[in-house]
Amino acid sequence: MKNIFIMVLLAGLCSLKGQDFKAYQFYDKKGKEITTEKLVRELAGYDVVFFGENHNSSINHWLQLKITEALYEKKKGQLILGAEMFERDNQAQLDQYLSGKFDAKTLKDSARLWNNYATDYKPLVDFAKNKKLNFIATNIPRKYASQTAKEGLQSLNTLNEKEKTYIARLPIQVTLDTPGYPEMKAMMGDHAEGTKVMNFISAQAIKDATMAESILKNRQEGKTFIHYNGNYHSKEFGGIYWYIRQKNPTLKMAVISVFESEDPELNIPAKDYIPTDFNLIIPADMAKTF
């Protein structure tokens, strides 16, 4: 009777274990599972860290915050934060908020914040505010990226001197050798006009080059600059990473890429998986913020 009871108990425990749900899993570039503790320990040794994201992924944003908090402790506060979601010409407003001169409403009214700012990026900005960290608005003002997509990169030469301070110094190199850009060309289809395709790619390039320049201008020796950006801006070591590498090939940089998976065990996906330094696997059905 006792043996039967033990067997039933073990069966129940096994059943409960089978119902465990995994919210995320990090892997290193060799495909080995890595704990968040080890991840933070390794990230502390880099000059620049790109934390890729799916913009609407709740777990992605939560992990950005938790990894940043842990990295702050590991680095004893030697951090600089920056993000794609803030444009260079809004740096003054962001600084006013960080210093306490603006409240949350004034920042919202005076800067071009993303619609999901309150849920997804405000926690990071408030962390920087509370810890008195620099938070850099790295991106090009969207109107200039839109202008590039419509009129081409050369149209930016008509900007006045003040406007040019909000974009990467011209000229910039635009090449299909940059990882990710050939994929963008393929997305446009075989029938798209050559000029239209290159304008579209140039708009992406001026964003990447501007963010790269912003990071290079604001990084400091001994500090880790952690940058939050859409996964596409650093996937496969392309985008921002590629532009920084052209200017400063000696910087030690790490990319965290994100992939969605239908697999409840969050094993490495069998398809469309090109790893970077660290790779975050999240459930495809994870709650979205929009």
TrEMBL record:
Pfam families on file: Cofac_haem_bdg
UniProt xrefs under SUPFAM superfamilies: EreA/ChaN-like (SSF159501)
Protein name: Iron-regulated protein
Protein origin, superkingdom: Bacteria
UniProt lineage: Bacteria, Pseudomonadati, Bacteroidota, Flavobacteriia, Flavobacteriales
InterPro entries: Cofac_haem-bd_dom
Signal peptide location: none
Haem-binding uptake Tiki superfamily ChaN domain residues: 39-244
Annotated Gene3D superfamilies: 3.40.50.11550
Membrane-spanning segments: none
